[in-house]
Amino acid sequence: MQYDFLPGGALPVPKGDEVVPLINRLAARFRNVVLTQDWHPRDHVSFASAHPGRQPFETIRLPYGEQVLWPPHCVQGTHGAALHAELNVPHAQLVIRKGHHRDIDSYSAFLEADRKTSTGLAGYLRERGLTDLYVCGLATDFCVAWTALDGRAAGFDVTVIEDACRAIDLQGSGAKAWQEMTSAGVRKMGSDQIISMPVPAA
Q: Which positions ≥6 away from 5 have C-beta within 8 Å?
């Protein structure tokens, strides 16, 4: 939930600001919370500006595969990279900064886009004895979906909180992401189901 992903930011997700208060309500139901934060250098390989003649949302091939080119966003130390001031999750124990390697993009909270470079999240969760993951935020079809899929691949039970997410929906990417997540065994729930739980979730 960073400013550049919200309306008025460099890479806004439509209606992304709507989920901030909902995430605050959800987070209060969990004892263990992890946040993620894109943290790109100014010349990051995923930025269209790093490739002369290229425009945002074009696709190129990089050594690790296909890469969507984005407008510069969430640059280290900028306002756009900051977590929203109204995000009220003081009990979050870990912030995973991702995308800080210049030559690799990163959507997933578990693995960067080369599918080799680990963020260390899986090890952290296992050391804590945590097995059930509930994922929400921005954007459904990129960071949320990649995190959910990698969580399943790493052996965790994963649920995406559908109404606490918003999608970019780039050329049907929203529907494709849900199809892939469902096929991988990712569950879908609404926030009301979680908020109404009689005891706080793990």
A: 11, 12, 13, 16, 73, 74, 138, 139
Which residue in this structure is represented by tokens 């999240």?
121
d(CA 54, CA 194) in angstroms, rounded, equals 43
- Helix %, strand %, coil % of the chain (to 5): 30, 25, 45
Q: Give the whole-angstrom CA distance, residue 173 versus residue 120.
A: 27
- How many residues are given for the chain? 202
Residue of 76, 70, 79 whose CA lies nearest to 113? 70
pLDDT of 109 strictly over 90: yes
% of the chain with per-residue pLDDT over 90: 94
Which pLDDT belongs to residue 195? 87
Please classify residue 53 by burial: count the beta carbons closer than 10 Å to its beta carbon, then call 0-12 exposed, 13-18 middle and 19+ buried.
exposed
